[in-house]
Design goal:
The complex is a heterodimer of chains A (216) and B (343). Chain A is mainly α. Chain A is built from 9 helices and no strands. The model of chain A has no long low-confidence stretch (mean pLDDT 92). Chain B contains 12 helices and 14 strands. The chains are: A mainly alpha (216), B alpha/beta (343). Bound molecules: adenosine-5'-triphosphate and magnesium ion (MG).
Chain lengths: 216, 343
Amino acid sequence: MEVSLDLILQACWETLYMVSISLVFGSLIGLPLGILLVVTRKGHILENAFVFSILNPIVNILRSIPFIILLVAIIPFTRFIVGTAIGTTAAIVPLVLHIGPYMSRLIENSLLEVDKGIIESAQAMGATPLQIIFCFLLPEALPSIVLSITTATIGLIGATAMAGAIGGGGLGDLAITYGYQRFSTITIVVTVVILVLLVQGIQSLGNLIERKIRRM
Amino acid sequence: MIEFRNASKIFKSEDRTIEALKNINLTIEKGDIFGVIGFSGAGKSTLIRMVNLLEKPTSGQVLVDGQDLSKLSEKELRQAKKNIGMIFQHFNLLRSKTVFDNVAMPLKLSKTPKSVIEERVHELLHFVGLSDKANSYPDQLSGGQKQRVGIARALATNPSILLCDEPTSALDPQTTTSILQLLKRVNQEYNVTILMITHEMEVIKQICNRVAVMQNGEIIEEGTILDIFSKPKTETARNFVRSVLRDEIPQSIFHILQANDKFSKIYNIEFIGESSGKPILSQVAKSFAVDVNILFGSINELQGVPFGNLIVELQGEEAEIARAYDFIVQQNVLVNEVIRNGG
Ligand SMILES: Nc1ncnc2c1ncn2[C@@H]1O[C@H](COP(=O)(O)OP(=O)(O)OP(=O)(O)O)[C@@H](O)[C@H]1O
Ligand SMILES: [Mg+2]
């Protein structure tokens, strides 16, 4: 049985839906978490061993669980949040839990790249910790943060391919069900081409925005 | 005024403790351009960073205008910091913001009205000579220009104290001089007391009126710049002074002297202030049966006072040279015999 154009468009839509919603919620978790991981560490502006020693292992644990396992392991939690454990929307819950911590590490690295001298000059001016974060750290790290978010988005596209396991749909699911299980080579080729174009497009867009911000 | 009272700083890490500052006692008077010089690791940065509490003293006190900043609440401390500007070796400007926004930053942090910010920033950019760069980004500026932006930013909140941690160490000699001249104007036109860290005696010589020499976390010598330049007491201070004022006979002259077989002695005569105007040497030549041979000389100006040295060879009978020497000593100048090494 061959795949129809409708099915492909449907799958594209599902992937974009999962990626964009997960990205928004993932950022809402990843950005603050990344900032906290930086500012609460030893010697930083809001040094707090207690908070850091709780957040750091949590992020590590979530980061070390393979996504396919996370997907099924948190089914009760997913049902609690969205009312169902299967379908495209249900897939968003594990995707967010997967990408949030990942993004927090990327953001953490971006913020750590900011020269210590910048923070020092802010402290010398009498900036509050919040002012240091929003007027100094984030603007200085912005180009790098854009690249981090780009990397996270591409990671999300990869993760959505596994969402089929809980009926999430999307391009990855299409490739498995039609291409692999029903031997439709054309489906595999088409979905791979679409995925490659999608990833290329997102990376180019990210690079473009980053260069714009750095005025290059 | 800045006062260090028995201030010490100990850094502790898992495996070792570093005593970065040991019992510092130092007073920087209002209006001073006070230089602190020392080799790398002497504790200079730690010292200057204690003034605005970027580093807390482990024991002892640092008073700024009589106030111990470590006793203030967070809010009061932020207020107090607006009275203390700071500039850095690597400028620490925000790359993501224009020159204008960099200079405006301290004012924005204290929620100053936009119109006031606008006026103040343009005034400061004019003062540092960068009016035409308001919309440039730091990446588009030279090192000297970046430091000018740093100075404008540090002055934004009208501080009475400016801390400078090696402000010219990343700059070439010519740019260094222009930045130092600007700092001198800051001191004079805005009545800002300047505390400056450096490892170059040339920087001290160009603008400071007082200087402290640091070594291993201690201040080993302190005084007016004339004191330190004319009578350095420690070996370290002497070496720093020597790095700008040469008082050694150049090798080439030594070779000529060695070829000479007449009896002679070599003296280093130092002049400070009015003594440099006296015709001592011509009097020596007229009053005693000696020939005066000037081997080397230099004259400098420190704080508007002429200061220099001459290395002279006196040729003649030994007794006559001794009498000439006594005469020179009586003229209130510093004179030492230079031993001919290898001669
Ligand atoms: N945060 C810190 N933790 C541990 N040790 C420190 C810290 N800051 C400075 N030190 C140590 O204190 C000593 C003095 O350092 P400081 O930076 O004040 O020297 P400095 O005179 O400014 O040197 P330089 O000319 O290289 O800047 C050094 O031995 C340094 O390693
Ligand atoms: Mg230093």
